[in-house]
Amino acid sequence: MAKESPDIWMPLYIGDYLSDTMHLSLMEHGAYLMLLMAYWKKGGPLPADDKKLSAICRISISEFKELRPALEEFFAERDAEWVNPRADKEIKKWGQMKDDRGYGAALANFKKFGTPIPEKYAERHAERNAGRNADTPLSVTPSPSPLPKKQVSSPKKKKHAFEDSPIFDKATFRAAFPDWSGDKCREWYTRAVEYSGANGGRYLDWKLAIQGWERKQSANEKPKKEKLLG
Question: Which end of the chain has fewer CB atoms at under 10 Å, N or C?
Answer without folding.
Answer: N
